[in-house]
Amino acid sequence: MTNKLFSFLKYWVFGCFVMVNAACQSKQTAEQVVKETPTVEVQVPHFNPDSAYAYIQKQVDFGPRVPNSKAHRACGDYLIREMNRFGASMHVQETDLLGWDGTVLKARNIIASYFPEKTTRILLLAHWDSRPWSDHDPAPANHLKPVLGANDGASGVGVLMEVARQLSLQQPTVGIDVFFVDMEDYGEPQWYQGEKKENSWCLGSQYWASNPHVPNYRARFGILLDMVGAPGATFPKEGYSQRYAPHVVEKVWNEAKSLDFEAYFISKQGGFITDDHVPVNEIIGIPTINIIHLTDEGFGHFWHTQDDTMEHIDKGTLKAVGQTVLQVIYKERK
Ligand code: AHN
Ligand code: ZN
């Protein structure tokens, strides 16, 4: 009797174990089916705006990074060091460029390549030099003073440094080249009365577009970041971007919308801005857009003034731009 009861209990317990186990296994199988189903969902890393902010602060702490200055040299060294630390293969283009005033400018274009073996590539750009003249400052006494360039220069570089840090942690499907462009902001100042010189802006990108860091360089498309740190910044669809790379504009603005950033990436036609994406489109022929802060009043009241400082850098704006760029990169397929 006791034996029979024991035997019954034994099989009952065993039966329960089998049933529970079977239930678990069928659950596992269901999960595996879900995992194995091809899906467009990808894990996009979280852009950290505190890091981007710190990278902007660091650049600004060198002082104005104007051509041929100690601060410019030191900041360039810092950028090369940091991008190396973030696991990129570095290409540094050193060259002498001629400014509108005849000054020989010691330029360094800094290109950080991720996954150089991949043939499908995206090019990301921002200029790292700052402007030698605050020619839009309300006080004429400031017109010959250099711009600190927290927003104009450092913001785009800071966002791309945080993108690079994420690239060092998680590999996307495509290869990425992060290009810190030199000598963008040496354009002829407002106060200059002499003969107007064409193409005095964007000297570093003009040079690169004619002399790429690797022969026959190609990228599927490019994204330039310029002045991407101001609180409440608005990025209309800039003219040259729409002309040369409308599909890239749509891709980027759609991703921004899906992340609820349409207050920044506004659905509005912007003016034509001479910037580093122009030689990239016109000389080397890579469809490239410009994410640039632009309002009906221009680039912001602090643009090319003594007031382009950290006070006008906003982490909410950095997040909107950085997360949108990361989403575009990590969703791109071969
Ligand atoms: C012009 O105003 C011609 N280009 C604006 C490009 C620029 C200057 N971006 C930053 N500073
Ligand atoms: Zn500028």
Describe it.
- By secondary structure, the protein is α/β, with parallel strands linked by helices.
- It folds into 2 domains: 1-39; 49-331, Zn peptidases (Aminopeptidase).
- The chain is built from 9 helices and 6 strands; from the N terminus they run H-H-H-E-E-E-H-E-H-E-H-H-H-E-H.
- It has helices spanning 2-36, 49-61, 70-85, 150-169, 203-210, 239-244, 246-258, 277-282, 315-331, and strands at 89-98, 104-114, 121-127, 175-181, 221-226, 288-292.
- It has a 6-stranded mixed beta sheet, sandwiched between helices.
- Helix 4 (150-169) crosses helix 9 (315-331).
- The termini are far apart.
- 47% of the residues are buried.
- The model is unreliable at 1-33 (pLDDT under 50).
- Bound molecules: N-[2-(1H-imidazol-4-yl)ethyl]acetamide and zinc ion.
- Residues 131, 152, 185, 304 line the site of zinc ion.
